Amino acid sequence: MRKRIFFCLAVVIFLSSRNAQADPIILIHGYLGSAQSWQTSGVVPLLQSQGWPLGGILIPEPPWILPYPKPTRTNLPANTIYLAQLPSLAPIALQTTILETQLAHLGRAYPNQKLILVGHSAGGVVARMALVRARIPPIKALITIATPHLGTPRAEQALDEISDPWPMEIIKEFFVGGPYPLLRNSSSLLVDLTRPVPGSMLFALNNTPHPKIGYFSLVRSQPFVLGDSLVPGFSQNMNNIPALSGKSVIIPTVGEHPLNPGDGFILATLLHQLTAKR
After folding, report:
1. Do the beta carbons of residue 161 and residue 184 sit within 8 Å?
2. Residues in a beta bridge with 250
3. Which of 197, 189, 221 is nearest to 122 (CA)?
4. Do residues 56 and 109 share a domain?
5. What dihedral do alpha carbons 116, 276, 233, 162 form, nearest 10°?
6. Based on CB atoms within 10 Å of each CB, which residue in 37, 121, 184, 202 is the most buried?
7. Radius of gyration of the chain (CA)
8. What is the pTM of this model?
9. Which domain holds residue 175?
Protein backbone atom coordinates (compact mmCIF):
# COMPACT_ATOMS: atom_id res chain seq x y z
CA MET A 1 0.00 0.00 0.00
CA ARG A 2 2.80 2.45 0.88
CA LYS A 3 4.51 1.73 -2.45
CA ARG A 4 1.28 2.43 -4.34
CA ILE A 5 0.74 5.72 -2.48
CA PHE A 6 4.33 6.74 -3.17
CA PHE A 7 3.96 5.87 -6.84
CA CYS A 8 0.74 7.88 -7.17
CA LEU A 9 2.42 10.89 -5.56
CA ALA A 10 5.35 10.53 -7.93
CA VAL A 11 2.97 10.58 -10.90
CA VAL A 12 1.22 13.72 -9.63
CA ILE A 13 4.51 15.51 -8.98
CA PHE A 14 5.84 14.51 -12.41
CA LEU A 15 2.74 15.74 -14.21
CA SER A 16 2.35 18.94 -12.19
CA SER A 17 5.94 19.94 -12.96
CA ARG A 18 5.09 20.65 -16.61
CA ASN A 19 4.77 24.09 -18.10
CA ALA A 20 1.73 26.09 -17.02
CA GLN A 21 0.57 26.56 -20.62
CA ALA A 22 -0.07 23.25 -22.31
CA ASP A 23 -2.36 21.44 -24.71
CA PRO A 24 -2.25 17.77 -23.71
CA ILE A 25 -3.08 15.53 -26.66
CA ILE A 26 -4.85 12.22 -25.99
CA LEU A 27 -4.68 9.48 -28.63
CA ILE A 28 -7.54 6.95 -28.38
CA HIS A 29 -7.21 3.61 -30.17
CA GLY A 30 -10.00 1.67 -31.86
CA TYR A 31 -11.40 -1.85 -32.04
CA LEU A 32 -8.74 -4.55 -31.57
CA GLY A 33 -6.19 -1.80 -30.99
CA SER A 34 -4.19 -0.70 -27.97
CA ALA A 35 -2.16 2.26 -26.80
CA GLN A 36 0.79 0.73 -28.64
CA SER A 37 -1.06 0.96 -31.97
CA TRP A 38 -0.06 4.62 -32.18
CA GLN A 39 3.59 3.68 -31.71
CA THR A 40 3.86 0.66 -34.01
CA SER A 41 2.02 2.50 -36.80
CA GLY A 42 4.66 5.24 -36.80
CA VAL A 43 2.29 8.01 -35.68
CA VAL A 44 3.88 8.67 -32.27
CA PRO A 45 7.51 8.54 -33.53
CA LEU A 46 6.63 11.12 -36.17
CA LEU A 47 4.89 13.40 -33.66
CA GLN A 48 7.87 13.07 -31.33
CA SER A 49 10.16 14.16 -34.15
CA GLN A 50 7.98 17.26 -34.55
CA GLY A 51 8.30 18.29 -30.90
CA TRP A 52 5.59 16.42 -29.01
CA PRO A 53 7.02 14.18 -26.31
CA LEU A 54 5.21 11.08 -25.13
CA GLY A 55 4.18 11.93 -21.58
CA GLY A 56 2.40 8.80 -20.43
CA ILE A 57 -0.17 6.05 -20.87
CA LEU A 58 -3.68 6.38 -19.47
CA ILE A 59 -4.61 2.95 -18.10
CA PRO A 60 -8.01 1.47 -17.08
CA GLU A 61 -7.19 1.24 -13.36
CA PRO A 62 -5.45 3.19 -10.59
CA PRO A 63 -3.16 5.09 -10.70
CA TRP A 64 -4.77 5.81 -14.14
CA ILE A 65 -1.68 7.58 -15.53
CA LEU A 66 1.69 5.92 -16.06
CA PRO A 67 4.59 8.25 -16.97
CA TYR A 68 6.25 6.97 -20.13
CA PRO A 69 9.12 6.79 -20.54
CA LYS A 70 10.70 7.31 -17.10
CA PRO A 71 11.15 11.11 -16.86
CA THR A 72 14.71 12.38 -17.10
CA ARG A 73 13.89 16.07 -16.79
CA THR A 74 11.11 18.14 -15.34
CA ASN A 75 10.48 20.72 -18.06
CA LEU A 76 9.15 18.91 -21.10
CA PRO A 77 7.73 20.90 -24.02
CA ALA A 78 4.26 22.25 -23.35
CA ASN A 79 2.33 20.02 -25.75
CA THR A 80 2.55 16.42 -24.60
CA ILE A 81 1.02 13.19 -25.93
CA TYR A 82 -0.87 10.70 -23.78
CA LEU A 83 -2.00 7.30 -25.02
CA ALA A 84 -5.35 5.99 -23.74
CA GLN A 85 -5.50 2.24 -23.09
CA LEU A 86 -9.10 0.99 -23.25
CA PRO A 87 -10.77 -2.46 -23.34
CA SER A 88 -11.29 -2.43 -27.10
CA LEU A 89 -13.85 -5.28 -27.14
CA ALA A 90 -16.13 -3.56 -24.61
CA PRO A 91 -19.25 -1.58 -25.59
CA ILE A 92 -18.85 2.11 -26.29
CA ALA A 93 -20.49 3.22 -23.02
CA LEU A 94 -18.05 1.21 -20.89
CA GLN A 95 -15.03 2.43 -22.82
CA THR A 96 -16.34 5.98 -22.44
CA THR A 97 -16.71 5.63 -18.67
CA ILE A 98 -13.08 4.51 -18.38
CA LEU A 99 -11.89 7.31 -20.66
CA GLU A 100 -13.81 9.86 -18.58
CA THR A 101 -11.98 8.74 -15.44
CA GLN A 102 -8.61 8.87 -17.20
CA LEU A 103 -9.28 12.36 -18.55
CA ALA A 104 -10.45 13.58 -15.15
CA HIS A 105 -7.11 12.59 -13.62
CA LEU A 106 -5.24 14.17 -16.53
CA GLY A 107 -7.30 17.34 -16.20
CA ARG A 108 -6.22 17.72 -12.57
CA ALA A 109 -2.61 17.54 -13.72
CA TYR A 110 -3.27 20.32 -16.26
CA PRO A 111 -5.65 22.74 -14.49
CA ASN A 112 -7.18 25.46 -16.65
CA GLN A 113 -5.92 23.82 -19.85
CA LYS A 114 -7.97 22.38 -22.67
CA LEU A 115 -7.35 18.88 -24.00
CA ILE A 116 -7.20 17.74 -27.62
CA LEU A 117 -8.76 14.34 -28.34
CA VAL A 118 -7.69 12.19 -31.29
CA GLY A 119 -9.63 8.98 -31.94
CA HIS A 120 -8.97 6.26 -34.49
CA SER A 121 -11.86 4.10 -35.72
CA ALA A 122 -14.19 3.22 -32.80
CA GLY A 123 -12.00 5.41 -30.56
CA GLY A 124 -13.52 8.43 -32.28
CA VAL A 125 -17.01 7.31 -31.27
CA VAL A 126 -15.82 6.80 -27.68
CA ALA A 127 -14.40 10.33 -27.69
CA ARG A 128 -17.65 11.79 -29.01
CA MET A 129 -19.72 10.07 -26.36
CA ALA A 130 -17.39 11.50 -23.72
CA LEU A 131 -17.96 14.95 -25.22
CA VAL A 132 -21.74 14.81 -25.13
CA ARG A 133 -21.88 13.28 -21.64
CA ALA A 134 -19.87 16.33 -20.48
CA ARG A 135 -18.12 14.65 -17.54
CA ILE A 136 -14.61 15.48 -18.70
CA PRO A 137 -12.27 18.51 -18.52
CA PRO A 138 -12.63 21.25 -21.16
CA ILE A 139 -11.81 20.12 -24.70
CA LYS A 140 -10.33 22.27 -27.45
CA ALA A 141 -10.84 19.96 -30.42
CA LEU A 142 -11.74 16.45 -31.56
CA ILE A 143 -9.89 14.82 -34.44
CA THR A 144 -11.18 11.48 -35.73
CA ILE A 145 -9.45 9.10 -38.12
CA ALA A 146 -11.46 6.58 -40.18
CA THR A 147 -14.20 6.58 -37.53
CA PRO A 148 -17.59 4.92 -38.21
CA HIS A 149 -19.70 7.86 -37.02
CA LEU A 150 -22.64 6.52 -39.01
CA GLY A 151 -21.78 2.89 -38.37
CA THR A 152 -20.44 0.27 -40.73
CA PRO A 153 -22.04 -2.62 -42.62
CA ARG A 154 -19.08 -4.74 -41.48
CA ALA A 155 -20.43 -4.71 -37.93
CA GLU A 156 -23.75 -6.01 -39.18
CA GLN A 157 -22.05 -8.72 -41.23
CA ALA A 158 -20.05 -9.80 -38.18
CA LEU A 159 -23.22 -9.99 -36.07
CA ASP A 160 -24.83 -12.15 -38.75
CA GLU A 161 -21.88 -14.53 -38.58
CA ILE A 162 -22.35 -15.14 -34.85
CA SER A 163 -26.15 -15.24 -34.78
CA ASP A 164 -26.52 -18.97 -35.54
CA PRO A 165 -28.77 -20.88 -33.11
CA TRP A 166 -27.55 -23.77 -30.98
CA PRO A 167 -26.07 -26.29 -31.88
CA MET A 168 -24.61 -24.59 -34.98
CA GLU A 169 -23.14 -21.92 -32.67
CA ILE A 170 -21.21 -24.55 -30.70
CA ILE A 171 -20.04 -26.29 -33.87
CA LYS A 172 -18.73 -23.06 -35.40
CA GLU A 173 -16.97 -22.05 -32.20
CA PHE A 174 -15.29 -25.46 -31.89
CA PHE A 175 -14.34 -26.07 -35.51
CA VAL A 176 -14.04 -22.61 -37.03
CA GLY A 177 -12.15 -20.90 -34.22
CA GLY A 178 -10.24 -17.98 -35.65
CA PRO A 179 -12.18 -14.73 -35.34
CA TYR A 180 -15.46 -16.37 -34.28
CA PRO A 181 -14.83 -16.29 -30.48
CA LEU A 182 -13.41 -12.78 -30.86
CA LEU A 183 -16.55 -11.57 -32.60
CA ARG A 184 -18.74 -13.16 -29.93
CA ASN A 185 -16.74 -11.47 -27.16
CA SER A 186 -17.19 -8.10 -28.85
CA SER A 187 -20.82 -8.50 -29.89
CA SER A 188 -22.04 -5.61 -27.71
CA LEU A 189 -19.52 -3.28 -29.33
CA LEU A 190 -20.50 -4.50 -32.79
CA VAL A 191 -24.14 -3.66 -32.02
CA ASP A 192 -23.00 -0.14 -31.10
CA LEU A 193 -21.24 0.21 -34.46
CA THR A 194 -24.19 -0.80 -36.65
CA ARG A 195 -25.75 1.87 -38.82
CA PRO A 196 -27.93 4.29 -36.82
CA VAL A 197 -31.65 3.56 -36.60
CA PRO A 198 -34.16 4.81 -33.98
CA GLY A 199 -33.34 3.12 -30.71
CA SER A 200 -29.68 2.44 -31.53
CA MET A 201 -26.72 3.89 -29.68
CA LEU A 202 -25.39 5.79 -32.71
CA PHE A 203 -28.82 7.23 -33.50
CA ALA A 204 -29.08 8.68 -29.99
CA LEU A 205 -25.49 9.92 -29.96
CA ASN A 206 -25.70 11.51 -33.42
CA ASN A 207 -28.83 13.45 -32.51
CA THR A 208 -27.52 14.75 -29.17
CA PRO A 209 -26.14 18.33 -29.10
CA HIS A 210 -22.33 18.43 -29.19
CA PRO A 211 -20.13 21.09 -27.56
CA LYS A 212 -18.85 24.01 -29.61
CA ILE A 213 -15.24 22.96 -30.21
CA GLY A 214 -13.10 22.28 -33.26
CA TYR A 215 -14.00 19.14 -35.23
CA PHE A 216 -11.75 17.50 -37.81
CA SER A 217 -12.60 14.37 -39.81
CA LEU A 218 -9.73 12.46 -41.41
CA VAL A 219 -11.47 10.47 -44.14
CA ARG A 220 -9.75 7.60 -45.90
CA SER A 221 -9.46 7.99 -49.67
CA GLN A 222 -9.00 5.00 -51.99
CA PRO A 223 -8.75 5.09 -55.80
CA PHE A 224 -12.18 6.01 -57.18
CA VAL A 225 -13.89 5.84 -53.78
CA LEU A 226 -13.92 7.55 -50.38
CA GLY A 227 -13.57 5.25 -47.41
CA ASP A 228 -11.81 1.97 -46.77
CA SER A 229 -12.70 -1.70 -46.67
CA LEU A 230 -14.18 -1.41 -43.16
CA VAL A 231 -15.86 2.01 -42.98
CA PRO A 232 -17.51 3.91 -45.87
CA GLY A 233 -16.27 7.42 -46.47
CA PHE A 234 -19.61 9.11 -45.70
CA SER A 235 -19.57 7.44 -42.27
CA GLN A 236 -16.12 8.88 -41.51
CA ASN A 237 -17.34 12.43 -42.21
CA MET A 238 -18.65 14.14 -39.06
CA ASN A 239 -20.61 16.62 -41.21
CA ASN A 240 -23.02 13.76 -41.90
CA ILE A 241 -23.87 13.56 -38.19
CA PRO A 242 -27.17 15.45 -37.70
CA ALA A 243 -25.87 17.25 -34.59
CA LEU A 244 -22.64 18.32 -36.34
CA SER A 245 -23.78 19.14 -39.87
CA GLY A 246 -21.38 21.63 -41.45
CA LYS A 247 -19.20 21.91 -38.33
CA SER A 248 -16.28 19.61 -39.22
CA VAL A 249 -13.22 20.23 -41.36
CA ILE A 250 -12.77 17.32 -43.78
CA ILE A 251 -9.25 16.08 -44.54
CA PRO A 252 -8.85 13.23 -47.07
CA THR A 253 -6.14 10.74 -46.13
CA VAL A 254 -4.62 7.98 -48.22
CA GLY A 255 -4.52 4.42 -46.94
CA GLU A 256 -6.56 1.53 -45.64
CA HIS A 257 -8.32 1.49 -42.28
CA PRO A 258 -5.32 0.96 -39.93
CA LEU A 259 -3.19 3.84 -38.72
CA ASN A 260 -0.19 4.75 -40.86
CA PRO A 261 2.69 7.27 -40.77
CA GLY A 262 0.72 9.59 -43.06
CA ASP A 263 -1.73 10.14 -40.22
CA GLY A 264 1.21 11.37 -38.17
CA PHE A 265 2.11 14.01 -40.79
CA ILE A 266 -1.48 15.29 -40.90
CA LEU A 267 -1.81 15.29 -37.11
CA ALA A 268 1.46 17.21 -36.76
CA THR A 269 0.14 19.93 -39.07
CA LEU A 270 -3.22 20.13 -37.32
CA LEU A 271 -1.71 20.11 -33.84
CA HIS A 272 0.71 22.91 -34.74
CA GLN A 273 -2.29 25.01 -35.74
CA LEU A 274 -4.41 24.08 -32.74
CA THR A 275 -1.73 24.50 -30.10
CA ALA A 276 -0.75 27.88 -31.50
CA LYS A 277 -4.23 29.14 -30.49
CA ARG A 278 -4.18 29.83 -26.76
Report:
1. no
2. 217
3. 189
4. yes
5. -20
6. 121
7. 19
8. 0.86
9. 153-192
